[in-house]
């Protein structure tokens, strides 16, 4: 499905985190309206691995992802993408970093309605003035299974097809990390499974790093590990998850009042 990755390069990359946060804090509002969304989080997102983030509504999972992805600025603490520290970066530097080194998949597909599927996929490269890598582009088009729909506009595609276009757009720049925020939330079960299998394959077959926020145990089961947040803190972790195992862990945390 994907171009073969050099095993030596993949092994070397996997020795350091693709992204990491240290003492990460995010506070909204002041006084009586003050809300601590993140309370001193330390976390590594390992290269070439699929990490899912789970927790109840308001636990800070999306805030964590947005801060690590450079979409939101933390109140305090440090965020690193590879060896690059995000704090202190100018807006244009952050924009270039997000465009060139990060891929995003959101619950809302965020496709431009006037562009074709292919034009939406290559939009990040067009904005950067770069041509797509032909081998990578061919592999991504094959993976999303939309070769015969590339010249259709979003309104002519199903929800699942639109989300696969969004996923292809996230992968076309060969990013260091793909961040996915509830990517299956607007999809039916078949389309959800197709998308999760695509994200899983991008990790297994091409060494991509995926960080996904989800509330669905079945979706989290596609990951290599699951991080659990509550009240802005990391409270648990599960490796080699299954859907039943994730559900049991969530019930245990609820019973423990975490």
Helix/strand layout:
Elements: H1 7-13, E1 17-28, E2 35-46, E3 50-54, H2 61-68, E4 76-81, E5 84-85, H3 91-101, E6 102-106, H4 117-121, H5 123-128, H6 134-144, H7 159-171, E7 177-181, H8 189-204, E8 210-213, H9 217-220, E9 225-230, E10 233-239, H10 243-255
Parallel strand pairs: 3-8, 3-9, 6-7, 7-8
Antiparallel strand pairs: 1-2, 1-4, 4-5, 9-10
Written account of the structure:
The chain has 258 residues and is α/β, with parallel strands linked by helices. The protein has helices at 7-13, 61-68, 91-101, 117-121, 123-128, 134-144, 159-171, 189-204, 217-220, 243-255, and strands at 17-28, 35-46, 50-54, 76-81, 84-85, 102-106, 177-181, 210-213, 225-230, 233-239. It has a single domain (15-255), classed as 3-Layer(aba) Sandwich (Rossmann fold), CATH 3.40.50. 36% of the residues lie in helices and 25% in strands. It has a 6-stranded mixed sheet, sandwiched between helices. Strands 2-1-4-5 form a 4-stranded antiparallel sheet, with helices on one face.
């Amino acid at each position: 499905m994907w171009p073969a990755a050099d095993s030596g390069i993949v092994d070397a990359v996997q020795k350091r985190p693709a992204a990491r946060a240290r003492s990460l804090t995010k506070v909204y509002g002041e006084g009586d309206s003050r809300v601590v969304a993140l309370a001193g989080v330390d976390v590594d997102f390992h290269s070439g691995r699929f990490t899912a983030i789970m927790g109840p509504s308001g636990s800070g999972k999306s805030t964590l992802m947005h801060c690590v992805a450079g979409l939101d600025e933390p109140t305090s603490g440090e965020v690193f993408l590879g060896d690059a520290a995000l704090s202190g970066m100018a807006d244009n530097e952050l924009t270039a970093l997000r465009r060139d080194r990060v891929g995003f998949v959101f619950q809302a597909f965020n496709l431009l309605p006037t562009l074709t599927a292919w034009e939406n996929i290559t939009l990040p490269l067009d904005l950067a003035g770069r041509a797509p890598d032909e081998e990578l582009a061919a592999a991504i088009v094959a993976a999303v299974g939309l070769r015969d729909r590339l010249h259709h506009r979003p309104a002519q595609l199903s929800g699942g097809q639109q989300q696969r276009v969004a996923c292809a757009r996230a992968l076309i720049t060969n990013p260091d990390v793909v961040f996915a925020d509830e990517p299956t939330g607007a999809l039916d079960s078949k389309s959800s499974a197709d998308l999760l299998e695509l994200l899983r394959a991008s990790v297994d077959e091409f060494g991509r790093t995926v960080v996904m926020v989800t509330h669905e145990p079945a979706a989290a089961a596609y990951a290599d590990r699951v991080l659990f947040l509550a009240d802005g803190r990391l409270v648990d972790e599960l490796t080699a998850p299954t859907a039943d195992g994730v559900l049991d862990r969530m019930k245990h945390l609820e019973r423990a009042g975490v």
